[in-house]
Amino acid sequence: LGRVNLYFEQNVTGRTNPNELKATHKLLVPSVTVAESDELTSNVFSAQQARHMNFEPIHIRFFWRQLMLWILPLTVLASIVSFKVLGVTGALPPLLILSAMVTLTYLRWQRWGIASDATYIYVRKGIIGIDYWCFPLAKVQQVEVRQSLFMRRRRLSTLGFVLASGRVKIPFVATDFASPLIERVLYEVEVKKPGWM
User: Fold this and answer.
1) Which contacts qualify for 168-172: CB closer than 8 Å, 24 or more apart?
2) What is the DSSP string of the chain?
3) 102 phi and psi angles, rounded to 5 deg
4) 3-58+114-192: what fold?
5) Does residue 102 contact residue 71 with C-beta atoms inside 8 Å?
6) What is the model's pLDDT at position 3?
7) Measuring CA to CA, how many Å separate 6 from each of 26, 89, 101, 152, 170?
8) Which of 33, 79, 142, 183 could form a disulfide with 162 if both were Cys (CB 3.0 to 4.6 A apart)?
9) Tell me: the pLDDT tens digits for 13-46?
C-alpha cells in the first residue's frame, strides 16, 4: 500500500519500571509514505541507506529446518487424528493449514536478510510486510555467534547483536559474510570507544 509504520527506539538499560519502559522508550510514527519515512530517518541516521542496500539472504536451510522440525510433524499428527475422527474428509483441513504454514514460512525465509556499509548494519525481516532494522556499527555492545554441528558443516552461523535497545538476531547467515562483519564491528567499537547513552 506504499505506507510505513516507523519506530524509533531509545536505550532501555538501567530503568526499573517495566510499564514506564513501554511508554517512554519508543516513538511510533504511523502510516507515513516511504518518502516521509526516509526524510524522518535521515534526521536520526543521516547516512543510512536501508531501502537501497543489497541484502545477503539467509540460507534456504532455514526454510527446510522449519518445515521438517515443526510444520510437517504437526501436520501429519493432525491429519492422522482428523482422519481417524472424521474419515477421509478429515484430512483436508490439516492439508489446507499445511499449505498456509508452508507459504508463510517461505515468505518469512525470503524476507530475512542482512547488509552493512561503512557506518550501519541493516537487517530485513518479516512475513507479509517487511521490517528494516538499522543501527550504527559502533552502538553494538555484544556480538553473539552460534553454530550447531549441522550449521558448522555448511559454514552457517546465527548472529546476534546486543544493543542498548535490545537484541537483533539473524539466523543461518553464511560464515563467509558473518566473519568479516563481526571483525569490522569489533574494530569499530574498539577504535571509536563510543558512549552508548
Assistant:
1) 168/123, 168/133, 168/135, 169/144, 170/58, 170/112, 170/114, 170/123, 170/125, 171/58, 171/62, 171/112, 172/58, 172/59, 172/61, 172/62, 172/65, 172/112
2) --EEEEEEE---TT---HHHHHHHSEEEEEEEEHHHHHHHHHHHSTT--GGG---EEPPTHHHHHHIIIIIHHHHHHHHHHHHHHH-GGGGHHHHHHHHHHHHHHHHHHHH-EEEE-SSEEEEEE-SSS-EEEEEEGGG--EEEEE--HHHHHTTEEEEEEEETTEEEEEEEEEHHHHHHHHHHHHHHHHHH-----
3) -65, -45
4) PH-domain like (2.30.29)
5) yes
6) 85
7) 10, 45, 28, 36, 21
8) 142
9) 555 555 554 556 788 888 888 888 888 888 888 8
| Residue in 142, 134, 177, 139 with CA at minimum distance from that of residue 157 | 177
189 with 142: CB under 8 angstroms? Answer: no
Amino acid at 41: T
Cα(66)–Cα(109) distance, rounded to whole angstroms?
Answer: 10
Average pLDDT, the chain: 87
What average pLDDT score do residues 162-177 get? 93
Amino acid in the structure at residue 177: F
Domain boundaries, the chain: 3-58+114-192, 62-107
